[in-house]
Design brief:
The structure holds two protein chains of two kinds. By secondary structure, chain A is an alpha/beta fold. Chain A has helices at 6-11, 15-26, 59-65, 103-121, 144-156, 166-169, 194-204, 217-221, 247-271, 285-295, and strands spanning 42-47, 69-73, 80-86, 124-130, 135-141, 180-186, 209-215, 227-231, 242-246, 277-280. Chain A has ten helices and ten strands. Chain A has a six-stranded mixed beta sheet with strand order 5-4-3-6-7-10, with helices on both faces. In chain A, helix 2 crosses helix 10 (285-295) and helix 4 runs antiparallel to helix 5 (144-156). Chain A is elongated and about 90 Å long. By secondary structure, chain B is an alpha/beta fold. Chain B has three domains: 6-85 and 354-384, no CATH class; 92-183 and 338-351; 193-331. In chain B, helix 2 (61-79) packs antiparallel against helix 11 (359-384) and helix 5 crosses helix 8. The chains are: A alpha/beta, B alpha/beta.
Chain lengths: 300, 385
């Protein structure tokens, strides 16, 4: 869809509307597995067992057969997808080709689009926007109103600070219930191993963590020349936020180090059977959603 | 700067070249302020100070060159460069159309080979492939004097004496003159003359004096019958029979002859005689009769008042020959080859015409460089944000 070029993504404020359009593009021609009102479809009768609710007994059948039968409907999907959006300062990185578009904006649109797909499918979604200054939460829910709530919360979030530390994350672990799948949207630029550890811990607790990495093209190609003053948005206390350097002499070394880091990150997630999806924000968002959905077929 | 093929029509605009300093200064100033970017992946960049000599290097040298070229082209375009045409090497021979082919061949053999041999015409054509259109070498020379291609040509004229035109001649001082014929103008032929009636007594001595001084050799032939007058045979007629002019004589005049008489001869009809004089000679009048004319002396030329003059022969010759237009044409001034009468065309007058303005190619180059500069700038902006 032509509407959804990077500049439109960057400038559109109505995430709910935007996500519906993207989702429509993604699902064009696909069969919806479930619709609104799912769960009312009759599936089978089974004998009443102690513990079954009395209002589930089919009384007309009892009148005919003199036996208690329970009318069973199709099992409602109980999948709960929790979106975790990294809102640390590095996510404010704008694209060098489309300076209006940041990683965070792309991530917001991406989550809203996938969330719309899930709610149309009848699944429940929740949202966590994380940085060390602010924790935004939308508990699990479903339906259009819930999607709007998530979109609104996404719109309010800003990228600042760092990934929250252990103590800040502590109260959040209870959010991830047993049938919860976590979609972790981040650039995975860590000071230590904090984001990888977060994913590893979720995995250890049996909550699949599906990672989406957002990058700008310049981070992979390093197209700069001449002298640069590079500002690191997440520079630690020990290092200066602005460094001067000669781009040409740094390029080869940077590309090698970055590729190595990417490899090790991808290897870590591959080891936990949740392959890393890495997308560049200059590329079409619908493609990114589609790739992710195809890779993690259990979501779709 | 004559060794350069360039010259400028408005060289004052070359001061604009000083504007080349502007982009140079901007790039120099930008060099001291490195480009600042926010880069989240700075974590993987090495902590290394740039070498100090790198600071002296100009950034975006390609872009700077394009901008300098743009300004230089603009200055050049305003100053209007002119490209000197390359002169054709090899000797060029311009041949008077009156020259015979055999004479031309002999001349070419004698004077060495010529790279090109062209007819001497306002627009010279090769001798081998075309026949000449115009035989007026005076006007041809006039037309070619300022043509840079023909400034150094060899000119081959038919005779050393060539008829002059009415316009002032302009010629190239570099021309090398040659001629095939004699260098002295041929003496004008004396017009064949007839007399009808009794010859006036002053005629014999006057003609004798003209012959002795070498002015003209007039030998009048006496005719009795006007029917013998043949315009092909005679040009002048001295008519001395008082009374009306016979029709045969009038026919002679209308065919181009000159009739000389005194006032005792009267025209058959009415003629518009125009009084002539002012040269101190005998009073006279003239009338045009189709192609010829009638010169009539007032009064009787048998009178002493008419012929009692010391300069009578010369006066008569002048008056008669002035009235004879075909003779005048033959008597027009001639000039010797190698000494053309007129004004040479100086090189400085020709130089401007010898250069081609280069505005269109420069304008095209300017547009291309402008496009390249814009494209490069926009692509940089996209990369660096």
């Amino acid at each position: 869809m032509d509407l959804l070029d990077p500049l439109t993504l960057a400038r559109t404020r109505d995430l709910a509307w935007l996500s519906r359009h993207i989702a429509a593009g993604v699902m064009l021609g696909a069969q919806h597995s479930r619709r609104r009102g799912a769960g009312l479809e009759f599936q089978q009768y089974r004998s009443y067992q102690p513990g079954d609710a009395i209002n589930h007994i089919d009384w007309k059948l009892f009148a005919r057969s003199d036996r208690y039968y329970v009318r069973e409907a199709e099992q409602e999907s109980q999948m709960h997808v929790c979106f975790v959006l990294d809102a640390s300062a590095s996510m404010a990185q704008p694209s060098f080709a489309v300076p209006e578009l940041t990683k965070l904006q792309f991530g917001k649109c991406w989550i809203a689009a996938l969330c719309w797909l899930l709610q149309a499918q009848g699944d429940r979604c929740s949202l966590l926007v994380l940085n060390d200054a602010d924790l935004r939460r939308v508990p699990a829910g479903q339906g259009e109103a819930h999607h709007h709530r998530i979109a609104l919360e996404l719109q309010r979030s800003r990228a600042t600070g760092h990934w929250p530390d252990g103590t800040q994350l502590q109260p959040l672990w209870s959010q991830f219930d047993s049938n919860c799948q976590v979609v972790l949207v981040s650039d995975f630029f860590e000071r230590g191993q904090e984001i990888s550890d977060f994913a590893a811990r979720l995995h250890a607790a049996g909550r699949p963590c599906l990672p989406l990495q957002l990058l700008v093209e310049a981070e992979e190609t390093f197209p700069f020349k001449g002298e640069l003053r590079v500002r690191d948005p997440e520079a630690g206390f020990g290092s200066s936020p602005v460094r001067e350097m000669d781009a040409r002499s740094q390029r080869a070394q940077y590309l090698e180090a970055f590729a190595r880091a990417q490899q090790s990150l991808a290897a870590g997630f591959a080891g936990r059977e949740s392959p890393l999806t890495s997308v560049k924000i200059e590329r079409p968002l619908a493609d990114a959603v589609q790739r992710f959905v195809q890779l993690h077929s259990r979501i779709a | 700067m004559s060794w350069l093929p360039w010259s400028w029509q408005s060289p004052q605009w070359l001061w604009l070249l000083l504007a080349l300093l502007i982009p140079l200064l901007i790039h120099l100033l930008q060099r001291s302020a490195p480009r600042e970017i926010t880069f989240a992946a700075a974590h993987w960049l090495q902590q290394r100070q740039p070498q100090s000599w790198k600071r002296l290097q100009l950034r975006d040298t390609g872009l700077l060159c394009l901008r300098l070229l743009l300004l230089a082209l603009l200055a050049a375009l305003l100053a209007i460069p002119l490209l000197q045409q390359r002169e054709n090497t090899g000797a060029l021979l311009l041949v008077d159309p009156a020259v015979e082919p055999a004479e031309l061949a002999a001349f070419s053999e004698a004077q060495g080979p010529f790279a090109r041999v062209l007819w001497l015409q306002p627009r010279p054509q090769p001798v081998a492939s075309s026949s000449p259109e115009s035989r007026d070498s005076w006007n041809s020379l006039l037309a070619l004097a300022a043509e840079p291609r023909y400034r150094h040509a060899h000119i081959l004229l038919d005779t050393g004496a060539n008829a002059a035109g009415y316009r002032a001649l302009r010629y190239s001082p570099h021309w090398q003159w040659h001629h095939t014929g004699e260098n002295t103008p041929a003496a004008p032929p004396a017009p064949p003359m007839a007399i009808m009636g009794e010859a006036p007594p002053w005629l014999g001595p006057a003609l004798q004096e003209l012959a002795e001084t070498g002015t003209a050799q007039l030998e009048p032939q006496a005719l009795a019958d006007p029917g013998q007058l043949d315009p092909q045979q005679f040009q002048w007629l001295l008519y001395n029979r008082p009374g009306p002019l016979p029709e045969a004589v009038q026919a002679f005049v209308r065919a181009g002859g000159l009739l000389v008489s005194d006032s005792s001869v009267t025209p058959a009809g009415t003629l518009d005689f125009v009084p002539l004089g002012g040269d101190g000679g005998p009073a006279r009048e003239a009338a045009a009769l189709e192609r010829g004319s009638w010169l009539r002396y007032r009064g009787n030329w048998q009178d002493e008042a008419f012929y009692h003059r010391t300069d009578l022969p010369v006066l008569l010759w002048q008056q008669w020959s002035q009235q004879d237009w075909p003779l005048q044409a033959q008597l027009q001034p001639h000039w010797p080859a190698g000494k053309p009468p007129g004004i040479p065309v100086a090189d400085s007058e020709v130089a401007a015409a010898a250069r081609e303005p280069l505005q269109q190619p420069l304008l095209l180059a300017l547009l291309l460089v402008l496009l390249a500069e814009r494209a490069l700038t926009l692509s940089r902006r996209q990369v660096h944000g």
